Amino acid sequence: MATTLSDLSVPIFVQMLTSLSGLLDKAAAFAEAKKVDPKVLLDSRLAPDMFALARQVQLATDFAKGPCSRLVGIDPPKYPDVETSISELKERIAKTISFVTGLDKAVIDAAADKDVTITVAGQPMTFKGKAYLAHMALPNFYFHVTMAYAILRENGLDIGKRDYVGKVPA
Amino acid sequence: MATTLSDLSVPIFVQMLTSLSGLLDKAAAFAEAKKVDPKVLLDSRLAPDMFALARQVQLATDFAKGPCSRLVGIDPPKYPDVETSISELKERIAKTISFVTGLDKAVIDAAADKDVTITVAGQPMTFKGKAYLAHMALPNFYFHVTMAYAILRENGLDIGKRDYVGKVPA
Question: In this entry, which stretches build a coiled coil (chains A, B) (predicted)?
Fold first, then answer.
């Protein structure tokens, strides 16, 4: 059996978004145990000009639903960036997982050599579907998931690499 | 043209390790401009029980050479973890890039459905090659590259997402 583009997209997004949702559960429990407002964590960032945790989670979902939509050839669903609580962010993650798993795998697979044009720094850039996934979508997706983990870790949460890698699909 | 496992492994490692090497150049320039010992950056970490920058760089290379070796079916080259300077870490990155680009792509491609057994938390776990790459190797690889970026960013380096994503292969 050959490798397909859907093998290397949807299940990765599902794995890591599920982990991210679990990290948010641990953040909620941490806030409760420490008697701090969960907003303190959601507004936390590693540097003044970096995005805070809530935005990192939104961007992680954007880099799942956006790339999958572009591979399939549909407009990405628009989620207004209005989440202000852990439960709302978890809902956004769940919605994203449900969206990407609902896409037709065969259409994703067929996009391997399709041109995908995106705008980078104001300039249109065209990639083959598989290059777009491998070299733009996944690096950006992983960036925001890892940054969310880093912010929580830097805030003192007792989480480890296993919480990040999560459950590996069989 | 179908998707192959080599499409979704070696060029990703090369892209991101090249970025990482560029981040280390910026770290060296930053240390010089601020008149601080580069060791301060290499020893910097986000939390007391997280790895420092130098170790994150070593682990990023390990999660490139290790997975590629396992897919090909050879023992990963052993690099002693002795780097104490930016130039030594850059050398390790260069050696890793040269190693993974020297592997036979056809052998990597053929590993998509080969069993790969690794030890996770003391237990052997067996995956098909493509699942191992997608669900274990890449999440771990991206974790350490992003963490290196996060440590530098938190130290005040003027770097951005473009430094992280780097040069996308044509």
Answer: none
